[in-house]
Amino acid sequence: MVALQKAVVTQEAETYALFRRVCPDCHTFRPVKDYTTRRIRTVFGTVEARNPRWMLYRDCHPGMDGAFAPLKEICPDRATPELMELRRDWEAC
Fold first, then answer.
1. In this predicted model, which residue has the larger pLDDT, 41 or 91?
2. How far is residue 92's CA from residue 16's CA, in Å, rounded to a whole number?
3. Distance between CA 70 and CA 52 in Å, rounded?
């Protein structure tokens, strides 16, 4: 189950990151700043996923200089939504 969970989390993380790499304003790929590894807690244990950071275009975001990590958007607590839902259910009991 851990291997299956790792495959699912990896695929979902890569798909979401690729989706967020496209700039919504100019529709081009944002440049890569770097890649790190992010540990994400799941129902079946902790898995590591590749965590890209994309730069913001200065033309599309004047005055803003920096990068963002898309995995932080979907796993802000470093846990999958399924695990967070189970925790809420357990705490409610």
1. 41
2. 31
3. 7
State the first-to-last Cα distance of the chain, in angstroms, to the nearest integer. 26
Closest CA to 32 of 20, 40, 24: 20
C-alpha 62 chain-centroid distance? 25
Whether residue 67 contacts residue 36, with contact meaning beta carbons closer than 8 Å, is answered with: no
Rounded mean pLDDT, 42-47: 86
Sequence-ordered list of residues with C-beta below 8 angstroms from that of 28, at least 6 positions apart, any chain: 22, 57
Please report where in the chains the tokens 């939504």 appear, as a residue: 81
- Token pair listed for 45: 């244990």
| Structure confidence by residue, pLDDT tens digits, 53-90 | 988 877 776 777 788 888 888 888 888 878 888 888 88
Q: pTM, whole model, 2 decimals?
A: 0.74
